[in-house]
Amino acid sequence: MRCLSAKIISRSPGETERIGFNLGTFLKSSGSAKTVMLYGDLGTGKTTLVKGIASAFGIAKRDICSASFVIVAEYETSPPFYHMDLYRLERPEAVDAAGVWEYIGTGGVVVIEWAERLHGDIEDAVKVYITHLKAEEREIIIEGVNSAEFMAACEE
Ligand SMILES: Nc1ncnc2c1ncn2[C@@H]1O[C@H](COP(=O)(O)OP(=O)(O)OP(=O)(O)O)[C@@H](O)[C@H]1O
Ligand SMILES: [Mg+2]
User: Fold this and answer.
1) Does the beta carbon of 19 lie inside 6 Å of ligand 1?
2) Which one of 74, 115, 121, 152 is most buried, counting C-beta atoms within 10 A?
3) What atom of ligand 1 comes closest to residue 12's alpha carbon?
4) What is the pLDDT of residues 21-74, one digit of tens each?
5) Residue 68 CA: which ligand 1 atom is closest?
6) From the CA of 87, how far away is ligand 1's center (Å)?
7) What is d(CA 10, CA 3) in angstroms, rounded to the nearest whole number?
8) Does ligand 1 have an atom closer than 6 angstroms to the CB of 131?
């Protein structure tokens, strides 16, 4: 598969949510990648993006919150939606012990904040890198979506 990537500038939390919604809509309609790995420093907008992704699955934005304490939040949507925040799991053994890998590849949609904590790769995952530029400006790079049309639309 060719590695496609799109670079988008978000200028507000609302814009980031919209980008997430578009990604969620794409994930819902495509039979392929169902894992989204999110990378970005504290407070860059990962959870904000997840609110948008989740809303494409019918989950209310207020129901998505920082999952740091629960590690995995499960939603009984179709397909099931799992929101993970691995911030507190610094060691790979802690990730294993929390059962994180058991959610992946089950057919549900798995969205992972602090995906670098996995210390491993997931085949066919979509990777999103968020960087704080200034004030409300963020650079969002999306990699691994298997659709040239979707990626081109992101960059418009
Ligand atoms: N363009 C933007 N996109 C997203 N968030 C933005 C943007 N501009 C400002 N913000 C603000 O940045 C903060 C992002 O918080 P959020 O919880 O989404 O970050 P996070 O990356 O999940 O943090 P953490 O690492 O603690 O999980 C919010 O307060 C939001 O209002
Ligand atoms: Mg967060």
Assistant:
1) no
2) 115
3) 1
4) 999 999 998 876 689 999 999 999 999 999 999 999 999 999 998 766 779 999
5) 27
6) 15
7) 22
8) no
Interatomic CA distance for residues 88 and 117, integer angstroms? 9
Half-sphere exposure of 146 (CA within 13 A, CB side): 13
Token representation of residue 26: 């794409």
* Beta carbon of 135 within 6 Å of any ligand 1 atom: no
Q: Which range, of 66-75, 91-100, 114-123, averages the lowest pLDDT? A: 66-75
Q: List pLDDT tens digits, range 73-89.
A: 999 998 999 999 999 99
Confidence of residue 136 (pLDDT cuts 50, 70, 90): very high
Task: Look up tokens 């993970």; give the residue.
Answer: 84
Question: How far away, in angstroms, is 32 Cα from ligand 2 center?
Answer: 25
Q: Ligand 1 pocket: which of 39, 42, 44 to mutate (most atoms <8 Å of CB)?
A: 44
List the domain boundaries for the chain.
5-155
CATH code reported for the domain at 5-155? 3.40.50.300
Which residue in 19, 4, 14 sits closest to 156, CA to CA? 19
pTM over 0.85: yes
